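Shape is hard to put into words, and the shape of a protein is harder than most. The fold becomes a row of whole numbers, each drawn from a learned catalogue of backbone shapes. The outcome of that step, for a single protein, is printed below.
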Amino acid sequence: MPWTYLTLAGLFEIGWAIGLKYTEGFTRPLPTTLTIAAMLASIGLLGLAMKTLPVGTAYAVWTGIGTVGTVILGVILLGDPLSAPRIVCLSLIVLGIAGLKWLA
């Protein structure tokens, strides 16, 4: 279960990171409420995962999922640029996440 919690925590992190853009500086009530809810869910699930996973592994995987997912959604939803160097760097993050999971 801890890896399930951690994966869900990472997905909620993507949600709140993208949600921040839609809050327009926390001036829009619905996006702000949803973003804060995603933040709380993300931290809560991360805490549950850390009951059994090493803190360094859990935190690195959590931020890695959030980083990669946020970049991908930024490209798809917000028109963020995607270049070969960015793809290489994202691939390295994914390899790091896989390595940490394999070693845990």
User: Anything to note?
Assistant: The helical segments are 2-23, 29-49, 55-78, 84-103. Residues 55-78 form the longest helix (24 residues).
